[in-house]
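dumping this here before i forget
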Amino acid sequence: MTAVQVLTAEQMRAAEQALFDAGTTQTELMEIAAGGAAEWVRRVAAGRSVTVLCGPGNNGGDGYVIARRLREAGNAVTIIAALDPATDAAREARRRWDGPVGTSGGAEGDVFVDCLFGSGLARPLVAEHALLLRDLAARHRYRIAVDVPSGIASDSGAVLNDRLPAFDLTLALGAWKFAHWSLPGRLQMGQLRLVPIGIGATRGAAQLIGRPRIAAPAADSHKYRRGLLAIIAGAMPGASLLAASAAQRAGAGYVKLLAAAADPRTPPEVVTDTAPLGQALADSRIAAVLVGPGLGRDEAARARLGEALHTAPALVLDADALMLLTPTIPARGVPKLVTPHDGELDTLCRAFGVIAESRRDRALALARVSGMVVLAKGPDTCIAAPDGRLALAPPAPSWLSVAGTGDVLAGIAASRMATGRDPFAAACEAVWLHGEAARRAGAAFTPSQLAERVSEALAAAL
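structure:
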């Protein structure tokens, strides 16, 4: 899987500075970035009229370049400037435009381009600018935001003003920003497209989860070499059966349920081991253990969790296990992945003494304090590692918002760990496979139907 960077505003400034240090001027970089954006606008406009709203900074400078390129291509272009250019590059871009510049709303047309403020804005728009933005957006049939829509915080995706317009297309300049993949801001952005400008890899950058590259089993593989996954069943065995169904389709060679008693609903291809849990976990061939789906929260469940923490060579902890887990439960330093939804994430943070504002920061802090990889699942899933690595997931189908799909995700992740993947890589692969299975399942699927599509998703990653 090729890493695609997601940068903070500060990291983006540093990446641009590296280009300046290598000899590229600000004006040259603006021509590259805005020129790429202008080509997208030109294709969308298809000869129709365009209105560009320019701000005082370099995002506004991009607007002047876009307008000039469109005029050269034959489009009718109107520029509205909320403020005069305030940077050397923006002033040069306006000079090169060499055309009329309006200062108030009222312009009407087909395509509106927002270049008012970009990724550097971290405070709400003043009332005058917010009104101008809303008015111009309302007067045009198609709306494009350049880099980040004005009024959206680049580093968090927070919506800083009320009644901001929704855009049909957002053109990220140089690199993705956190806002592009974070709620609620991404809901305002429409389709997302990346305009490359030649920046290099940034140390410490977050990554966007993409299609993994998964290899088929080697010619001499057998079930144990491919990975034996043990799933600890509990008070509600249906959840562990869902996880097992998904795990069997996600790459592990052998999936075994460790249960106090056999469940008649267990399909014939799933082996159930009813030996005492400590004895069952002593099998040296076990590569990974999943505990939590349907586990329960009583003392018996706590004891089963403790057995897993003391014995398993690698662990995925989900659902009820997350509500029971505390730093006081002794655990060896084996690879661990936790998969909390927001409520479970809050519980874990309280248990481990983590205080942070955003869910992304909570996940990072929890991973650092606990030594576990944290897959914070939800409509804007993120994955945090103890060493500070962070991965963001593109939006998955909203049909996943149904009971049981988390058990499927846990089964996929545990299966990938059983094949030998480390927790961070397994989590990234699992999130992609989960979303792809949902896309293939269509609308209003059941968790069992989702699990059945996992093998198709795996095939798409080969």
